[in-house]
Amino acid sequence: MFIRILILLVMLYYDTCSATECTTRGRFPDNSNSDCRGFTMCLSTGANSMKYNVLCPEHSIYSHLESQCTNVTSYQCLPYHNCTLIGDYANPSSEDCSSYISCVKDLNNITTARLIRCPNDQIFSATENVCVNQTLLKCDIATESPKVLQVSVNNSPNISVNFPLNNSVYIFKRSLYVTMALCIAFNIIINV
Hints:
This protein is an alpha+beta fold and 192 residues long. The chain folds into two domains: 25-133, no CATH class; 149-191, no CATH class. The chain is 17% helix and 35% strand. It has helices at residues 2-17, 175-191, and strands spanning 26-29, 38-45, 48-55, 60-63, 68-71, 75-78, 87-90, 99-105, 111-117, 122-125, 130-133, 148-152, 160-164. It has a four-stranded antiparallel sheet with strand order 6-9-8-7, with no helix packed on it. Strands 1-2-3 form a three-stranded antiparallel sheet. A two-stranded antiparallel ribbon has the order 4-5. The model is unreliable at 1-20, 143-149 and 159-183 (pLDDT under 50).
């Protein structure tokens, strides 16, 4: 029993001594965990600050917006998203603007991304960087279909080649057929 109390006191002393980052009272994201479950709680006790590293329960993550643990359906960790700046940004994968990406820095200057869903009947405004009522804003998602030039060769059955005109890269298995189709198409254009 005495050993357990001694270990607990040593752990509290270690946390108190490592509280150099705690200058303000509050809860802050701890991005050292890739699952976004961690947060740092800084308590001020008079002239001293105490730092506690805490993990949210399973199936929940720390929300820097609510300063508490929350469910993973409205707030998700994006450990592989590369944040270049801190802040909230439109989610390029969202087709209806109902979510956005938030890049958050912790007390150790580690930045990670979170995918946050807007409340019901709201969409993310990229100009205001907040969720707004969906009746006040139209979601403009650029859904550009590829522009294609299709060349068919009349004398050779089963040869039809699509040439993308946007900046996509395609690898053609039958480069000989592609070359032939281009030559024939070029000759048709010149002779017209």
